[in-house]
Amino acid sequence: MSLAMTLLRRLEGPQTLGRGPAFWTAFAIVIAAAIAYPWFADGYTVGNTAYFFCWVFMALGLCLIWGYGGALSFGQTAFFGLSGYAYGVLTLNVGAAYGFTLAALVLAVALSAVMAALLGYFLFFGRIGGVFLGIITLSVTLALERFMAQTAGPEWKIGAARLNGYNGMSGMPPLTVPWFDGEIVLFPDVALYYGLLGLLIVVYLALRILVNARFGNVLVAIRENPERAEMLGYDVRRYQLAAFVIGSALAGLSGTLYTAWGQYITPSSMGLTAAALPVIWVAVGGRGDLTATLLGTLVVLGGFQALTIYGSQYALVVMGLLLVVVVLAAPDGLVVAAMRGLGRLRRREAGR
Amino acid sequence: MTPLLETRALSKHFGGLHVTNDVNFALAAGEIHCLIGPNGAGKSTFFRLLLGEYTPERGQILYAGEDITALKPFARIRRGMSVKFQVPGIFPSLSVAHNLEIALQHHLEGASLGAEIRRLLAFLNLSAAASERAGNLSHGQKQWLEIGMAISLKPRLLLLDEPTAGMSPDETFATGAMVQALNRDGVAVLAIEHDMAFVRQIAQRVTVLHVGRIFAQGTTDAIIADERVAAIYLGETDAPPLRSVADA
Hints:
The complex is a heterodimer of chains A (about 350) and B (about 250). Chain A has about 350 residues and is mostly helical. Chain A has a domain at about 45-270. In chain A, about 75% of the residues lie in helices and about 5% in strands. Chain A has 14 helices and six strands. Chain A has helices spanning about 1-10, 20-40, 45-70, 75-95, 100-125, 130-150, 190-210, 215-225, 225-230, 235-260, 270-285, 290-310, 310-330, 335-350, and strands at about 155-160, 160, 170, 175-180, 180-185, 265. Chain A has a two-stranded antiparallel sheet. In chain A, strands 3-6 form a two-stranded antiparallel ribbon. The radius of gyration of chain A is 20 Å and the shape is globular. Chain B is globular. In chain B, helix 6 links the parallel strand 7 and strand 8. By secondary structure, chain B is of the alpha/beta class. In chain B, the strands form two sheets. Chain B has a six-stranded mixed β-sheet with strand order 6-7-8-3-9-10, sandwiched between helices. In chain B, strands 2-1-4-5 form a four-stranded antiparallel β-sheet, covered by helices on one side. The interface between A and B is medium-sized, with 18 and 27 residues. Chain B: This is ABC transporter ATP-binding protein. Chain B: Keywords: ATP-binding, Nucleotide-binding, Transport. Chain B: InterPro entries: AAA+_ATPase, ABC_AA/LPS_Transport, ABC_transporter-like_ATP-bd, P-loop_NTPase. Chain B: It holds the Pfam family ABC_tran.
């Protein structure tokens, strides 16, 4: 009971914007609206929203590593691709019966976590930080992209799963949940939407608890002043590694969900453009806060897709421009700036 | 009695420059000891060796009789050492209370954590600034906040690197009173300091470092009266014989 109370208390704290009845009422209204949304929207739009949800986990992961931990990883897409391909290989070989797709999801995410632990061990225990961390993680994702792009030949297969080079892997089954009378297939419409909404709420709240707990305190301490954090008796490397593993596993979760959503994955999902986008989503919303990252990512994804309809090259230019403008005008992110402004306004009103 | 901190033939060089040279040093539990010496004497390097930020080429560091030479900094801190750097090492974008919370969460939580934060804020003269962003504090307040973080760990040994640098005379005196209050609770203090008024206020023993070696050691009065110590500060002496003023 006391553990549950402790966890509930940590839903809000110094590391997260939004607290008190006003915030949680707004939160409940947003959740209620999100639950009601499929009743008013057509299946395609709902499926498209589910597509946006797929990406948010990767952004939240980057928010943890970069915004809270201060280590800019450019390699989120490496784990996105790794888990996406892993889900494909596993399900193309074993199939979707008996809820195996869920086991494949867990295994694919676990693979990313293990690989992140391995890479992160060398990075953080080798005391690699700052810009070099970005360069190495970017190199890893680009190397993976190049590698997967040259797997077009028939010899590149794992069991029944052809890797297919630049065209990517396709035909893997969507997520299926075993149920009493058969199974529920989470096709990319209402069913997957609800599944992802639930998962998103759980991950968001769990991360809020994590960053407001002792772990999150140490993480922001490392971001602010790693030497001081170490001189308070914290093994900085372990905390950085833990954040990297959790954040990268979330990127892996995104990759798996994306692959299950569209039933395909290609090497370009690990390319340079793909690698830059999570950085933009997180920076634009506000890397220092989970809620800001979540909102910012959804808005930027929506805007990006709308722009893409008129011309993909312009959409990318706008994304680049957006990043530059935000870095110059609101370095903490647009959502964070807006939320702070709102807070100031409320205090001023209260002071009258 | 085993010293709380001891170095044996501790040596560190950067290229051909011997910054710490065969230093044999001992600090008793509960003692306030000041480390002085002209710029470039090797004081800060000696501190970084004690903390594990530098690895010595030769020699040993013992803490409460245990060889800690190979331990990482965080492991030394966990054994009861704590440090306040010359440039205030705080978490600038977090609130003052949050800075202290991060230091205190090792051994406290819940209501007792809050009570200890309030007690420390009062001790540090920072109660009014509890929710202030730490980066907005004055220089002296930042120094106090860092001292507060350092003592939050309940250390047996507190290392202070120029704790009064950039402070007004009033702030310096208040800092001295803080150090003495901590010492009354049994905390041993090793402080690098240039301000001789501060040294006089707090030190029970003084060690003079010069070109990486111990030049002289003794009571504060004996060191201040030593003309050779004055001479090295003026750059008139460069021969560093190892000797003790108290023995002379």
